[in-house]
């Protein structure tokens, strides 16, 4: 879990670094060169513009549709993440037994604990880092959206609902919704898992970071994150329905007592 937290902070740090790169002020066109421009930024810019043409000129609606298309494209990866999470949940009793067996904090015992834990993962075909893969995949897309929005005049200058796509949300509504939906999505993903201080910290830290970053970035980026989170919440509900219902029943039973 500590590795996942460090990885999350690392990926978000890379995101902040890349969003500040010098090309951010250069318009993106079909003539733009370089792998980043040709295969990530320009295709996203083109998709949003073409979608707007089909949707009556609304770049906001186009952004929502493109977000859903991307989410559907990475859906197999997200399903794999959810299944990996459920597999980790099923292994919790055995992992707890290993921690009790190797409870000593000396280096030799801790190395043995790591070896036994990895052997347990291999036996059941579980990848403990699978939960981080979607974040790693999403970051280039998120950065690509940032560049596509900022470097495409038609998108950056368009308005949608109460905000301009290329400017900050003036009322900070979208950043707050982004944080809330991030919290709900993570809470659903953790349903049924054994809670620990690291997981509790991750549950709160990630939404807070998202809100903090969203305050400064274009509203279109928050819109992408909110739509993606809602998609994930619906997806997780259908995949982890039994776990969520069992947790809700347990909470209700505890409240009655």
From TrEMBL:
Transmembrane regions: 59-79, 128-149, 198-217
GO cellular component: plasma membrane
Domain Membrane insertase YidC/Oxa/ALB C-terminal: 59-240
Subcellular location: Cell membrane
Transcription found in the keyword field: no
Membrane-related topology note: Multi-pass membrane protein
CDD domains: 5TM_YidC_Alb3
Single Gene Ontology MF annotation: membrane insertase activity
Keywords, ordered alphabetically: Cell membrane, Chaperone, Lipoprotein, Membrane, Palmitate, Protein transport, Signal, Transmembrane, Transmembrane helix, Transport
Hydrolase found in the keyword field: no
UniProt-listed GO biological process terms: protein insertion into membrane; protein transport
Role this protein plays: Required for the insertion and/or proper folding and/or complex formation of integral membrane proteins into the membrane. Involved in integration of membrane proteins that insert both dependently and independently of the Sec translocase complex, as well as at least some lipoproteins.
Protein name: Membrane protein insertase YidC
Gene: yidC
């Amino acid at each position: 879990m500590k590795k996942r937290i460090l990885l999350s902070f690392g990926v978000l740090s890379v995101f902040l670094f890349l969003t500040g790169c010098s090309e951010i002020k250069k318009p993106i066109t079909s003539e733009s060169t370089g792998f980043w421009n040709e295969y990530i930024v320009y295709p996203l810019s083109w998709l949003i513009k073409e979608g707007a043409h089909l949707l009556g000129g609304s770049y906001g609606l186009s952004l929502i549709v493109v977000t859903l298309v991307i989410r559907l494209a990475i859906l197999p990866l997200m399903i794999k993440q959810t299944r990996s999470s459920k597999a980790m949940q099923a292994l919790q009793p055995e992992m707890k037994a290993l921690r009790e067996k190797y409870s000593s904090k000396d280096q030799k015992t801790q190395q043995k604990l790591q070896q036994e834990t990895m052997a347990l993962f291999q036996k059941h075909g579980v990848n403990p880092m699978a939960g981080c893969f979607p974040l790693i995949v999403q970051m280039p897309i998120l950065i690509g959206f940032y560049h596509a929005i900022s470097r495409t005049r038609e998108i950056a200058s368009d308005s949608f609902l109460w905000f301009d796509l290329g400017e900050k949300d003036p009322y900070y509504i979208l950043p707050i919704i982004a944080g809330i939906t991030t919290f709900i999505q993570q809470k659903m993903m953790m349903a049924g898992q054994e809670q620990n201080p690291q997981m509790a910290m991750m549950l709160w830290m990630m939404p807070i970071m998202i809100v903090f970053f969203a305050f400064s970035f274009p509203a279109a980026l928050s819109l992408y994150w909110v739509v993606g989170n809602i998609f994930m919440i619906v997806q997780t509900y259908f995949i982890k329905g039994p776990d969520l219902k069992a947790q809700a029943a347990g909470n209700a039973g505890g409240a009655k007592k």
